[in-house]
């Protein structure tokens, strides 16, 4: 109970000054050998996030180099290894492929239903992990949980509901990939960076706070605007907050005293550093989800929550109300038909032969 109270108090302090809190003076981590990080993703992990990660790590005495495979809107399948070799962007810089990587950060398209129905995220994540682990058996793979677009940034209540429901299912995806992956079955498991949940918590923490003296109440909408640029991409502050989270998760250490970009107040940077450490530690302590419970959750929430939200946030702005509703009804009917014909179907079960 005391831990929950301390965490809650930190969030209240964070919210009370608009995404910031004040704590004790941090200590600098001991210097470590440079890490080699590979980022496989799209616009939710685009620059400046990897640049910030390098600066944060260097400022804490843990320098790193990074390379990437990047394509806007891409799936993991579109960034798969070529043969047995990771595909690397030319923009990664000289020497990017000279040695095996020790850390892989990978994300998927942000449509959860697409991930489990069409993109074979479970299988593709397992295969990418095995590809990189074949070059370095000590590699640590981290799945960076993506977030969906906001349907209304001024009032992100629906988005918060979606993300809270999606978070356990993304964990189910990772758990299923671990059952498919040879490297994971040998003990090198894929782990989770809770990027979507962290953003949601930062936004949500502002909703219940009183405004600081002399400031009007902004609430969750104001927090969302500070962290999310349009409807989905992180702002400068959002990218920094997420880079701190990646640092905290992949090192297992809170990034206290880290570098901060120009324009981020010291107290804001410190608050986000504390928050990143807490969020990463909480994610590391999450239990492995049960595959049967995962399947039941997906069956209930697909038509009740996920697709209705997609209709409002994605399809309606792109195709208009009539076409969006038609898409929603079509997907809902096909889903119910699938569940009727295959009541035991689940994307989270291991394949019959136990291999990926």
Descriptive report:
This protein has 356 residues and is an alpha/beta fold. The chain contains twelve helices and five strands. A five-stranded parallel sheet has the order 2-1-3-4-5, with helices on both faces. α2 (49-59) links the parallel β1 (35-41) and β2 (64-70). α5 packs antiparallel against α7 (195-205), α5 crosses α11 (291-319) and α9 (236-251) crosses α10. It is globular. It starts with a helix and ends in a 15-residue tail after the last helix.
Number of domains: 2
The biggest sheet, with number of strands, parallel, antiparallel or mixed sense and barrel status, is: 5 strands, parallel
Helix content: 40-55%
Quickly name the level 1 CATH class of the largest domain. Alpha Beta
**Poorly predicted ranges:** 1-5, 20-31
Choose one word for the global shape. globular
Distance between the termini: 41 Å
The number of helices is: 12
Task: Please identify which CATH superfamily of the largest domain we are dealing with.
Answer: SGNH hydrolase
Q: Give me the Rg, rounded.
A: 20 Å
Order of helices and strands: HEHEEHHEHHEHHHHHH
Protein name: SGNH/GDSL hydrolase family protein
Keywords: Signal
Organism: Methylorubrum populi
GO molecular function: hydrolase activity, acting on ester bonds
